[in-house]
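Question: I have long wanted to understand how a fold can be written as tokens. Here is the record:
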Amino acid sequence: MAVTPTGMLSLPVSYLQTTVANSATFRTWTGTANPTAALARIHVGRAAGTATHPLACVGFANGFNRTSDSLDVWEQNNTLQLMFRDDFSSALNEQDAYYTFSNQVGAIMLEMEALFNDAGYLDVFEWSIITGPSRTKDNEAQTLGNFFEVIIECKYGGA
């Protein structure tokens, strides 16, 4: 049974998932036919070690905060993290593999920007890459896998 996201903690994560799933580039990259199918490649919290690449992962970055003004109007400015990951292709040299990954992520980000603040999508007012794009280090590749990864912080707000 699938749980329906509701409320101030679950809905932002769900909206970010929906935003990624509605990127045509993400769907092409993951070989998924439509946004519903793409949701299976967007993990919440963390992706299992056996998850199929490419993938995305969404969740809260550093807690949750709401503040109230003197009229008891509650507002929030919080941060979600979005991670993209894909296997390193040994068919490409390091530079071409880096650019291939970066091109995919950059195109997805542009498509997501066009959806931010629309109904059903996350109300993002700022985002930044905090890690990567980078490839796993040689000494980590045997245990973690050989992949490229980027982590993006998405700052959102609203009442």
About this structure: The chain has a mean pLDDT of 89. Strands lie at 42-44, 55-60, 66-68, 74-87, 124-135, 147-158.
